What does this fold into?
Amino acid sequence: QVQPVESGGGLVQAGGSLRLSCTASMNSFSNYAMGWYRQAPGKQRELVARISPTDVARYADSVRGRFTISRDNDKNQVYLRMDSLKPEDTSVYYCNRFGATLPWGQGTQVTVSS
It folds into this structure.
C-alpha cells in the first residue's frame, strides 16, 4: 500500500483560510471512508474530519463549523477546507483511511499565527 500525499499547508494569520489536498493511490478509493488527522508537537494524533463513501461528513467538536471535508473519487483525492483558522489549529495534517489503515504520509504543516 502506498502512503497518501498531502499538500496545501502553509503559514496563515488567525482568521485566515487554507485548503488541503490529499492523493491516495489505492484501489477502490470510493469504497472507503477517508479522514483528515492532525498532530501538534507533544500531542497525540487526532481525527479532525471524516467522510464516508456516500459523502456523509463528521467533524471533531474543535473544528465543526470551520472545516469542510470533501472528496473526488475520480481523482482519488480528499480535501479539507479550513476557515476561521485559530493558532490552536497549528499542526501537521495527514490524511488516511478512516481507521488509519494506510501507511502515514509526510503530512503538510499548517501554522496559524496570532
User: Anything to note?
Assistant: The mean pLDDT is 96. The chain has no helices and ten strands. Strands lie at 5-7, 10-13, 18-23, 34-39, 46-51, 57-59, 67-72, 77-82, 91-97, 108-113.
